[in-house]
Amino acid sequence: MQNKFLIEAFQTPENVASTLLPYFGELRKDPYVDSDVRFRSYARFSLSYKGDIVRLPHAPFMQSSEVNRVVGDIERHFEPMSDDMIDVPEFQHLLKSFASATGLEHTGANIDVHQIRVTCSASDTSAPAPEGIHQDGFRFVGIFCVQRKNIAGGFTQIYSSPVDQHPHLNTVLEPNQFIILDDQRYYHHISETLSSNRGEEGVRDVFVFTA
């Protein structure tokens, strides 16, 4: 008999988010979102059967329109993730934690990682997940929070179906919190964000892992 992975959430050491936060200031605008509030980079990794993690050559990212109604079936060319950041032990810790939690660490699987910053103001909301309640089209999805600054909203919501009226889980991911879910079993969404302080920009920084 073998148990089936559904959802796991855990807290990383405090220094992980603070060490990785400066690298988000280097992100360039996401060219596939019609606004100036979303910034992004991307990298691909391979897990060897020995448990080693190797960065793969940079490549476009594409999802089917069946799982992404906004930019599905479009080859998206994101900026490559910083080599310096990837070599930082704290980032390696996140990769290994995702691989270990999902049971992929000795499978030879590939992991995609998206580094995303979403900003907002007190009068204009931002949509961290413009595609709405969705799946990403992978086996597993992980979200790690690096920063919530002057943010209201931005709830991480997990649903049993795309038409559910009430989420199975509705929570705020704080810095250093990591949630991983079965992408074939659940749907997820991030609610809209507003700045909680008038005149100050709100910022939400996360890594999204898929495999």
Summarize the helices and strands and which ones pair or pack.
Elements: E1 7-11, H1 15-20, E2 28-29, E3 38-47, E4 53-55, E5 79-80, H2 83-86, H3 89-102, E6 110-120, E7 140-149, E8 151-153, E9 156-159, E10 169-171, E11 177-182, E12 187-190, E13 193-195, E14 202-210
Parallel strand pairs: 3-5
Antiparallel strand pairs: 1-11, 2-3, 3-4, 3-6, 6-14, 7-11, 7-14, 8-13, 9-10, 9-12
Q: What does this molecule look like?
A:
With 211 residues, this protein is mainly beta. It is built from three helices and 14 strands. The strands form three sheets. Strands 1, 2, 3, 4, 5, 6, 7, 11 and 14 form a nine-stranded mixed β-sheet that branches. Strands 10-9-12 form a three-stranded antiparallel β-sheet, with no helix packed on it. Strand 3 and strand 4 form a beta hairpin. The radius of gyration is 16 Å and the shape is globular. The relative contact order is 0.24. The model has no long low-confidence stretch (mean pLDDT 91).
